[in-house]
Specification:
single chain, Rossmann fold, five-stranded parallel sheet, 9 strands, about 50% helix
Amino acid sequence: MMYPYKLIQNPYPSNPTPTVEDTQILGGNRHKEGKSAVLSCIDDLFSKIKGGATEKDFRLITVIQDVGSGKTHLAFHIRGLQQLLGSAVISYSDLAQISPRSMHSICGALLRGFNDEYLNDLRKKVIHYLKDKADRNIKNARKIFGYGFFDSLMGKKLEDKVEKFLQNDGYVLDFDAVDKVLTEEFSTAEVSVLKLIIEGKFRTVVNHEKTLEEIIENLSALARMNLKFLKKLTVLEIDEFDADKESMAFVKAIVNAHLPSTVLLLILTPSSYEQIRIANSSVFDRLEKANYKIDLAGSNTFEEILDIILEYIRYYDKGKNFTSQEEKDLAARIKVIYDEFPDFRNVRSMINILYHSTENAEARDASAIDEHALDETIKKNYPGLRIRGSIMSVPVSDFIKIQKNCDDKQTMESDLRAAIRNLVNHAHNMGTVSALEDSQNTSGIDVIYNDACGMKVAVTVILNKDSAKNFERVSNSARSTLADKVVILTDSSTALGTGSATRAAAVVAATTAKGGETVVNVDRSKMIDLLYFSSKYKNDEIKGDDLERALTLAKSIKLC
């Protein structure tokens, strides 16, 4: 069995937060524009560094938008880009996972944010730098590896001792000699950082006695070492930046220090941005002057979410089996969910639906993510969800079924007439109106009955485009029934503009016994309610809360 669209695996992630593997895929124009801006910043700074810039080799980027808009996904995606391997080393840290926060814990998170590959590469570069000095017999350099005159005389190779150390084969360097060699060229902070790198303790040792100034100097030293030994920029991604006092002080210190050859990327929400403005105007001023301000506003629009959904399929569709027609069909199904249910108007929720729907389709050997897969997913994963504005509290799964038939005007009009009859019958059973009169011989009138006040009510449903032409026929029928009130149920897509509605009301008023008329707009939500009620009524399922809900529905369209 295969997944829909002949995919060999489910393209959608099931994790509540993005993983590195998930974030290889990036969809949505807003996210792609954000990615382009970050890459532009890195490329610009890298070209300046190669050209010898020294004073303005620091950049600040802010990424701002609400929770669930894809900020973290974007940061992870950039961190994993192959095209940046030759120009940048990237650390990602999430301040929400740090408690309690202090300058030391934040610094530790930044250091842990670098991956193992980078640290191993940097360590090798530094060791080989020391080996090169030993090869050239620079003073004290050979002592670092314990390589002396007799080793050379006995034919032992310096390379062997270097390799043993690189492989952590129990070999220990002479760190007194390391100090003496490195001090000739590097500052105290740089020597301290280099020794931690050589020992492999770079991410595990944070000196809690250091001041903020000393911590920033160490980060500056690290950035300089990245440039010297790896010829790369340093990119620090800090997620969930907010108005926490320690966090603001730390970030302000980084910005003020202008860490050399460094890009600082801060990820925060609009509410956090506003809290920072209130709490610390100095930090806010620095954020306002960021080199790049990336706002992901609009990332939860239907177009953006759809592009993200489709991008996952395109990425895993190695055989190019996903056709343009299948893309349109899936888009139409997703649009129904997006339009009607605010709960799903964000990337996370929609991806979750698509993951489970894909699993359902695969289990049934379906060739596409069909309505059944979406319906079953919503039933299972969102059993209590109801459509927005629904009087009858229609479940999502039932809504999707009914929605499919709403585009057929002729069928819709016939079903609504039946629903109105059922609704009036229910109102009669509840003692609110009298029993229905026979309206079969009355052209254009669907329902006739007396309301609680004894007034005769005539109801008609008109949804077709020629509805305005039917009002004279309706009015003639209303005259013959001597109706006290005429209720015309129509929808916003008919030809009932303001002028025609007024004309229709005037015609009806002139031909009814007491001049009572009501033109009621039945929007799509009420249509769904009526059809859902009618289905339950026919199956004798109107019980409990549905009894009163149905009466409320009848009142909302002026039937009683």
